Amino acid sequence: MSRVTQAIVATAAIAALAACATRTKEVAVAIPPPAPAPVPVYVTPAITPINRGLSPAATVWHMRVALNVAALACRGAQGNQIVAGYRTLLTNQKAALATAETALESQYRAMGGDWQDRYDDAMTRLYNFFSQAPARDPFCTAAAATLTEAERLGPNELQTFAAAVLPTLDAPFAEMLAPRPVIALAAPTSAPAPAPVVGAVAATAAPAAAMAARPASVAVSGTSISAVPALATAPAVVTPAVAVRAATPAAPAPASAARTTAALPAVATRAAAAPVAVGTRAPRIEVDPAVLQD
Question: What is the pLDDT of residue 30?
Answer without folding.
Answer: 77
